[in-house]
Amino acid sequence: MTTENKRKKIFSQLRKDLVSGTWVLFSTKRSKRPDFSVKEKKKKIYKEDIEKCPFCKDNVQEQEKDVLIYAKNNGDWSLKVFPNKFPALSSEYKDVNIREHGPFEVMDGVGYHEVLVTEDHRKDIADLKILQIAEILDAYQERYIALMNKKHIKYISIFKNYGHSAGASIDHPHSQVIAMPIVDPDVFRSLAGSEKFFSSHNECVHCVMIDREQESKKRLLFENDEFIVICPFVSRVSFEMRIYPKKHLSYFERITDNQKIKLAEAMKFCLSKLKKNLKDPSYNMFLHTSPCNGQDYNHYHWHFEIFPKTNTWAGLELSTGIEVCSIIPEQAAEILKK
């Protein structure tokens, strides 16, 4: 066996993230023959499951205080948004009430926590038509704009958990919108890295990465007129995907109707590939966009990130903070494109 072949077989490499400056370890030896099928057994959906589902049509009552409803021609709803019954943050607080607690700083959990539900219990985003996905994106935008000017709100998190191991407590397809009085720490680090790169190079770090991916094509999964999908060079989990606008755009809430259609195409591609090629794993999908706290973030580039549940944090990850992937993104892209 040649040295090069031996090196490829026992592959281990550390890659530094261009934005955050953190390192990720890629070590394929940790998994001789990876099985990325979902570890939890997906149960078959029966009629009685739908009858008991709190998000299905007959069970979602008007007293849920709907904040948004998209109706169909027959009068039924195709999508609705309502307050979460078990909110992480509460709109009942009138002020953040920042105060000291010994050496610590505390504030009240002011905010809004909403649930976006689509009508069909059996159809998730991967199963929907492009226009149906665009309707979800339209609702994301509408709720974002409605919440961004509320008192004390500085950041709005939009995310989707799919599968119980990804944190979904209810099987019915749904997303969540949380408006909070602080900037999401993960986004804060991303913003800091983007600003630092822009100050040094006078260009967007995400645009630089997009240009590189279009040139190399090794990790490029999909592109249309408006969006590109990649497996990031420094993926934090195996088969991580990111959906970027090709143009430098900083604020998701300014998305146009045409861009929603194009984003829906990209999103369907990603989630369909997960379902078909990775045996339908659980995943988390979330938006990273500029905060709505009144500051200028033109250096930032909004995007969606998709994290399949293919990694488990253990001693190495918890003790060092270094994330470990057993599949390099170049190989992940090949598998997903099949």
Which secondary structure elements does this structure contain, and how are they paired or packed?
Elements (H helix, E strand, L loop, with lengths): L2 H7 L2 E5 L6 E5 L19 H6 L15 E4 L5 E7 L15 E3 L2 E3 L5 E7 L11 H19 L6 E8 L11 E7 L4 H17 L3 H12 L3 E4 L3 E4 L10 E5 L11 H21 L5 E6 L14 E6 L6 H6 L2 E3 L3 H9 L1
Parallel strand pairs: 2-15
Antiparallel strand pairs: 1-2, 3-4, 4-7, 5-6, 7-9, 8-9, 8-13, 10-11, 11-12, 12-14, 13-14
* Shape, per Cα inertia axes: globular
Strand order of the largest sheet: 3-4-7-9-8-13-14-12-11-10
Question: Structural class per helix/strand content?
Answer: alpha+beta
Helical run tally: 8
Largest sheet: 10 strands, antiparallel
Helix content percent band: 25-40%
Question: How many strand units?
Answer: 15
Roughly what fraction of the amino acids lie in strands? Answer: 15-25%
Quaternary state of the chains: single chain
What is the C-alpha radius of gyration, as a whole number of Å? 21 Å
Let me know the CATH homologous superfamily of the largest domain: HIT-like
- Average of per-residue pLDDT values: 88
In the residues, how many domains can be counted? 2
Sequence stretches where pLDDT stays below 50 over 5 or more residues: 1-8, 32-39
CATH architecture of the largest domain: 2-Layer Sandwich
Query: What is the fold-level CATH name, i.e. the topology of the largest domain?
Result: HIT family, subunit A
Provide the CATH top-level class of the largest domain: Alpha Beta
- SSE string: HEEHEEEEEHEEHHEEEHEEHEH
